[in-house]
User: Which sequence fits this backbone?
């Protein structure tokens, strides 16, 4: 195939290219002979992967209060600005709910971290984090958002915020809003012909 | 009918091949095209990139956004399986470490690799005469060169002719041009005295002459997901599926091979396997049996194939099977290029294999370790995936902000959001892949106490790095540090000390393990002859990484392909002479 035929074939893959293969088996575990007449197959996922996703979607981890708190926190981390929407606009809270079930090592530190945050707020401001006014919320966040200058007694909060900040960035920049914000231009047929000339000049290469 | 019985097929194939990766795929391709009636057994499901690849999916099409929860190299990676597979354990002894990556699916581990395709050189085959540190192969580069050439023509590889003695040139397609960060790496390398060449990868950057079935690379950079237009090399798309199309090769999927069956005279007659679906036992017959189940799995099958004629396992009268296991060394470091902050955005996905690499460039007479390593480089404006931006709250404390002031690392809000944009595409990584010495006392063996869910005895590993690999790792870290400095990068990983093996990864983690059923002229010190034919059983062959005597610092796939093709052609010749029946 030349380049033009390649791109044409790529467009055809959704329905199966002409040169290749008709569907055969649906039962992925069965040992069966696959000969010339029945090439082709499945969806690119093992059965257990699909089962796992379904199970995780059926499970609910965070309660209503926790989700409301997460929603406020992720928008403090990534707010709406001139270029793009906020973390919640990009669906980050639901993503975090899924990820803590997918990577269960997140579960305890996330739940405990939210609790830590609420207790800090109750002691200082007599409200849980979610019910504090934004001035008080930011006052506390400022004490845990900068690992190098945070006070030693805030270390648990720093660890929690590091984790949450990482999850938030993961969720935001892998969403459609985030990919557009960051300016990723790929994932599409292209012809790479080296660094553009203006870049060569700019960087004196 | 009894509840459990072994289902024996009466059909006798000309050849039964165990495994559908690079080695099995190539043997199947050559034999099927020569008109032999071939049966291939694959321990996992069928896989055709055209329907099964996750190419061109966006990160949000994975609920875990590409995280490596179920697939070690990310949710879109083509490879099923990984280091741990439920119900299929392996064990380790003497507190040693070995990580065994298995990909049970059509194409095997060609579904996971960087498509970096390097020939072994003359010195790699004859290391003993060079420095006395390693055993010689019974064959030389000149024996393998014609097959490397044929593999280049059949599968396609890009690169440039350089005339380096131990980095032999091939028949090359045009290599991709460097990305922006790679131009900085090249500058830094030059200052640090490190040679950098255009990459060598098995991706069709232009039409492969004579082949109308495969597409040309359209620069999505996603070879790791496998290619729907077959523009990269996977054993499925380039070898097994074309072999099926001849009408001469059939694949049985989900067939987990237990052992090779031999007759009273000790000759191989077929294999027995358990089906993953019904968990029933089956036997199939072949005039010859070719193992290509991966270096360790082929050793496991042979060691489990005990009979009166072969009491120590089939082909193991030397006791050598399982020994001389060796994986490449691996050390990585990373950094970021502050001069690239706020860089312009454009599509630089390129190809999914390396655009540039460094072949081994130094003279060992001036060094305290034998042979060397090559370096692979990464970086660029890549598609965001789980973990994206994880380093930004650290990096933003290392360089001045837009106003020229140093700020506190970390943060949140509009300022942090701006930082994610500023740092995007500035990070680079470098990874060394080096020669480890094949040693008799690094081995896999059958664990006497443990079986897998199929009742098949499992492998137990014993592997220790030696001083040679540790010194090499130390040298890699020194080189990377010097290069990062020379290109104006700020390191984001720190060199590790002797207590952390100088950053040397665990054996097995580079997934280049070979050597467990090595070839040689002497049946006392090798299991196979120079044609990959068992000394003890003339109709048994091994064509994966197991026959390697000593790996170079080259990724093994291209050599597995060349040697498998060489063996398949030998089988055709020997059949004509009726030497195998």
Assistant:
């Amino acid at each position: 195939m030349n380049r033009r035929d390649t791109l044409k074939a790529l467009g055809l893959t959704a329905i199966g290219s002409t040169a290749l293969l008709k569907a055969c088996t649906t039962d992925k575990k069965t040992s069966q002979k696959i000969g010339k007449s029945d090439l082709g197959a499945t969806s690119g996922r093992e059965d257990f992967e699909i089962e796992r996703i379904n199970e995780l979607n059926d499970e609910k981890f965070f309660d209503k209060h926790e989700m409301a708190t997460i929603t406020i926190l992720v928008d403090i981390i990534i707010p709406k600005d001139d270029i793009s929407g906020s973390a919640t606009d990009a669906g980050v809270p639901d993503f975090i709910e899924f990820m803590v079930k997918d990577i269960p090592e997140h579960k305890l530190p996330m739940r405990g971290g939210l609790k830590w945050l609420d207790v800090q707020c109750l002691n200082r401001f007599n409200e849980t984090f979610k019910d504090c006014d934004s001035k008080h919320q930011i006052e506390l966040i400022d004490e845990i958002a900068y690992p190098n200058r945070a006070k030693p007694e805030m270390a648990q909060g720093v660890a929690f915020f590091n984790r949450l900040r990482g999850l938030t960035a993961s969720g935001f920049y892998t969403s459609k809003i985030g990919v557009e914000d960051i300016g990723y231009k790929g994932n599409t047929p292209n012809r790479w012909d080296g660094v553009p000339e203006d870049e060569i000049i700019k960087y004196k290469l | 009918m009894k509840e459990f019985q072994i289902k024996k097929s009466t059909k006798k194939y000309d050849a039964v091949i165990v495994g559908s990766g690079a080695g099995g795929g190539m043997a199947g391709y050559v034999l099927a095209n020569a008109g032999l009636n071939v049966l291939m057994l694959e321990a996992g499901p069928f896989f055709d990139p055209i329907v099964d690849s996750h190419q061109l999916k966006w990160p949000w099409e994975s609920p875990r956004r590409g995280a490596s929860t179920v697939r070690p190299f990310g949710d879109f990676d083509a490879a099923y399986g990984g280091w741990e597979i439920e119900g299929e354990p392996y064990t380790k002894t003497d507190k040693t470490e070995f990580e065994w990556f298995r990909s049970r699916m059509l194409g095997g581990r060609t579904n996971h690799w960087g498509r970096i395709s390097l020939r072994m050189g003359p010195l790699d085959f004859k290391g003993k005469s060079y420095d006395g540190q390693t055993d010689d192969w019974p064959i030389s580069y000149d024996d393998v060169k014609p097959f490397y050439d044929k593999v280049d023509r059949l599968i396609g590889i890009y690169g440039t002719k350089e005339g380096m003695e131990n980095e032999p040139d091939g028949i090359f397609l045009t290599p991709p041009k460097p990305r922006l960060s790679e131009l900085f790496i090249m500058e830094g390398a030059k200052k640090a005295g490190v040679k950098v060449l255009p990459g060598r990868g098995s991706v069709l950057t232009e039409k492969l002459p004579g082949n109308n079935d495969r597409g040309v690379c359209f620069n999505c950079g996603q070879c790791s997901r496998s290619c729907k237009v077959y523009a990269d090399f996977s054993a499925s798309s380039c070898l097994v599926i074309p072999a099926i199309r001849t009408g001469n090769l059939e694949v049985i999927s989900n067939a987990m091979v237990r052992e090779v069956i031999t007759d009273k005279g000790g000759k191989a007659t077929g294999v027995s396997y358990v089906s993953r679906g019904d968990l029933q036992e089956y036997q199939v017959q072949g005039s010859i049996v070719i193992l290509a189940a991966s270096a360790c799995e082929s050793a496991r099958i042979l060691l489990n194939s005990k009979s009166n004629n072969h009491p120590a396992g089939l082909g193991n009268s030397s006791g050598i099977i399982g020994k001389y296991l060796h994986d490449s060394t691996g050390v990585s470091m990373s950094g970021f290029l502050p001069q690239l902050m706020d860089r312009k955005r454009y599509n630089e996905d390129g190809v999914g294999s390396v655009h540039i690499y460094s072949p081994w460039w130094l003279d060992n007479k001036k060094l305290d370790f034998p042979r060397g390593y090559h370096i692979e480089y990464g970086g660029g404006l890549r598609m965001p995936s789980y973990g994206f931006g994880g380093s930004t709250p650290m990096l933003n404390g290392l360089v001045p902000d837009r106003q020229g002031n140093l700020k506190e690392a970390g943060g949140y809000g509009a300022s942090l959001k701006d930082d994610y944009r500023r740092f995007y595409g500035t990070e680079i990584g470098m990874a060394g892949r080096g020669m480890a010495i094949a040693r008799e006392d690094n081995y896999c063996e059958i664990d006497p106490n443990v079986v897998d869910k199929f009742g098949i005895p499992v492998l137990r590993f014993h592997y220790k790095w030696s001083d040679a690999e540790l010194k090499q790792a130390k040298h890699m870290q020194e080189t990377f540090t010097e290069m990062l400095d020379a290109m104006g990068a700020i390191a984001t990983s720190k060199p590790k000390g002797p207590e952390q093996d100088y950053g040397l990864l665990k054996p097995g983690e580079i997934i280049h393990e070979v050597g467990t059923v090595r070839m040689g002229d002497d049946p006392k010190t090798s299991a196979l002859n120079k044609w990959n034919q068992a000394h003890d059983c003339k109709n048994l062959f091994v064509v994966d990484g197991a026959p390697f005597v000593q790996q170079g610092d080259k990724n093994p796939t291209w050599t597995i392909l060349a040697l498998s093709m060489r063996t398949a052609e030998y089988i055709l010749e020997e059949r004509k002479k009726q030497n195998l029946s």
Notes: Chain A has a mean pLDDT of 88.
